Structures are given as C-alpha cells and as structure tokens.
Amino acid sequence: MNNSLNLLTSKDNCNSKITTANKSKISPAHKKAMLLHKQEISQAKAAKIETALESLNKEIEIVESFIAILTNDVAKKDCINLKTRLEYKRFMLIERKSKLRSTVPS
C-alpha cells in the first residue's frame, strides 16, 4: 500500500498507519536478546575455528618432519603437496576467523 499523505483522509486511516508502524518496530529487549544470541553463536564458531587451527598446525608440523626425513622424490613431492593444501586450509581458517572477529560486537 502506498504511504502517501493523500491517503490519510481520516483519523482512522492515520491511526491504522501508526499502529502498523508500531507493530513493525522491534522492542529493545528483543533486539538485545538477538544480539546476545548472535554473539554466543559467533563465539562458539570462533572456538571451533581455533581448535581446528591448533590441530591443523600440529598436522603441518608432522608433515614438515616427514618431508625432512623422506629421500624418495615421489613421496617427498606428495608430502609437499599435502603441506601446501594444509597451509591453504590454515589460510582459509585464519580468514574466517578474522571475518568473524570483525562481526562480533564487543
């Protein structure tokens, strides 16, 4: 429906518009609850990402130790490729973590 002032010809029309506008507003308590819920979810995601980063860093250390030990060129190349994939995965997790940190209200 058009919100033109020309449509407000009576007091009832005006009251109905005001009632509709007030219904569409979010109460401050509800807004605060929504923000707290978002913050809890973001903190849980950040904790999961941090755990994944820790295990990924350990895995990268293990692969690096294998690379140092291996003499076979084919196996060494496979381990280097694996390390590259793991480093990319770590990069993506760090990016997600930084984006998540920028959206979490303090």
Describe this structure in words.
The chain has three helices and no strands. With 106 residues, it is mainly alpha-helical. It has a domain at 30-101. The model has no long low-confidence stretch (mean pLDDT 86).
Shape: rod-shaped
Count of DSSP-assigned helices? 3
How many whole angstroms does the radius of gyration measure? 28 Å
Kindly estimate the percentage of residues that lie in beta strands according to DSSP: under 5%
Which consecutive residue ranges, at least 5 long each, have pLDDT under 50?
none
Average residue-wise pLDDT: 86
> What string gives the helices and strands in order?
HHH
Largest sheet: none
- Percentage of helical residues? over 70%
* Helix-strand makeup class: mainly alpha
The count of β-strands is 0
From the N-terminal CA to the C-terminal CA, the straight-line distance is 40 Å
Question: What is this structure, in a nutshell?
Answer:
With 106 residues, the protein is mainly α.
Provide keyphrases for this structure.
single chain; 106 residues; mainly alpha; 82% helix
List the helices and strands and how they pair.
Layout: H1 11-24, H2 28-69, H3 73-103
Helix pairs in contact: 2-3
